[in-house]
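Limitations

Structures in this collection are predictions, not experimental determinations, and the ligand pose is part of the prediction. Treat each record accordingly. The example that follows, with 2-acetamido-2-deoxy-beta-D-glucopyranose as the small molecule, is included so readers can see exactly what is and is not provided: the inputs are given verbatim, and the output is the predicted complex.
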Amino acid sequence: MKLSLVLLWAASALTSPLRRSVAKLSSVTRNGTSLLVDGKVWKMVGPNVYWLGLDENVTPPAGEPFYAPTKASYPTKERITEAMATVQALGGTMIRGHTLGISTGNPLSVMPKPGVVNERAFDPIDWAVYQAGFDLNQRRDEKNPLVQQFYTNATIVATFKDYIKTIITHRNQYNNLTFAEDPTIFAYETGNELLGPVWGDMNSPADWVQDIAKYVKSLAPQKLVVDGTYGINKTHLGIDEVDIFSDHMYPVNTAKLQADIKLVEAAGRPFFIGEYDWVGGNTANLQSMFKIIEESPAVAGDTFWSQFGHNAPDCKTYVDHSDGLALQYGNPKNTANQNSRIQLIRKHFVAMSQGKEIPPDEPLPAVPCPAPTSPTFR
Ligand SMILES: *[C@@H]1O[C@H](CO)[C@@H](O)[C@H](O)[C@H]1NC(C)=O
Ligand SMILES: *[C@@H]1O[C@H](CO)[C@@H](O)[C@H](O)[C@H]1NC(C)=O
Ligand SMILES: *[C@@H]1O[C@H](CO)[C@@H](O)[C@H](O)[C@H]1NC(C)=O
Ligand SMILES: *[C@@H]1O[C@H](CO)[C@@H](O)[C@H](O)[C@H]1NC(C)=O
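Predicted complex:
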């Protein structure tokens, strides 16, 4: 099994099928409300691993790149490969990877300033895309009208497109493929939780969404485009260049889920739950959500928020994140409740990705640390 990636842009994220084999990777395509790989229905289930390109949870050893004001550092290769191995153990098929696509505005990012490209930032990104391609058997509460300039100001839109072009035309140092060519990356998301000046307003203008989706497809005709608006904005459903619509569930809300599916299915497109709280609420609610997803052909899949792992190559300590939603697979300090939810997630992923029922109490497969890595091109 290999993994695919969704890359997200700017304000917000790269999605990749997780795939790990030297065998040639098939592209993910769309047929109406279904996603297909090699002519068969393919489901997009996995975690959000937002830190694969840039992280702010670990202070690196002295001398390593570190930008103190935002605590930015590059993740180690070992942390990245462990993330892939964990997704495989969970039965997932892909990763939603924000900082593979979103990387601007600090000295460690891909584009520290408009027009300035920092090649060093591509090392963890290239590594993550490359490793995913192998088979190893802040909430915004301001009401600032300037926000809308992100979509309407011609200079800002041009800068954003220049940034998109920098990412998509980049050639991976580990496999010599561009991010347009590499089938490991199956979708680009226009942003993460895009909105206007007011929280929840879904005000990313339809003409902007179409313009960006067209631009992505002009550079990468084979890639799918996910509308990164936070919620289903009905004015977007008619945009032909959008392949997948999505929403985030904080908290898990099955009524909202069903309403979203209905809207998107009627528009002839697959629906994807890009983020959800796997920790809060009662377990039965999480189970109900999984059941709806499994039984709805027009749901392409879901990615939980969010996965962390060891501070690899240190295989004794785990990296934590401040939001209380870090899923640390195999951590002996996990509570029974956390572990039973991880079991549920795995059962759900396997049902989605392999159409197979696993016993709910089947032990979680071990993930070795350090995790195996793929052979490299250089
Ligand atoms: C594509 O969708 C059409 C209409 O739903 C269906 O008839 C056809 O079999 C699908 N093709 C594949 C390859 O799944
Ligand atoms: C558009 O954005 C640019 C760059 O930030 C800025 O210089 C310009 O004043 C903005 N235009 C308007 C009309 O606000
Ligand atoms: C990488 O691909 C480019 C474009 O196809 C080609 O010109 C170049 O020779 C390749 N580099 C290596 C080291 O294979
Ligand atoms: C949806 O997007 C349109 C612009 O395309 C915007 O006018 C509207 O406010 C957005 N929100 C909703 C809830 O429709």
